[in-house]
Design goal:
This protein has about 60 residues and is mainly alpha-helical. It is built from two helices and no strands.
């Protein structure tokens, strides 16, 4: 975790989000939900929903 706020917070946020997506894809590789879809699709949907809520609350 960083102690100081980065100069370009948008770039920092995008890089962090991309790292989280990559981690989720690797962590859930080969897993499927009850419908047989890749589990990562669920993780991505939840991530986007939470992101939308954060934007609404700002």
């Amino acid at each position: 975790m960083h102690d100081e706020r980065p100069d370009d917070i948008d770039q920092y946020w995008n890089e962090s989000l991309n790292q989280a997506r990559c981690l989720a894809q690797v962590s859930h590789a080969g897993q499927v939900d009850k419908a047989g879809k890749p589990y990562f699709v669920h993780v991505e949907t939840v991530s986007r929903t939470v992101g939308d809520l954060i934007v609404l609350c700002q």
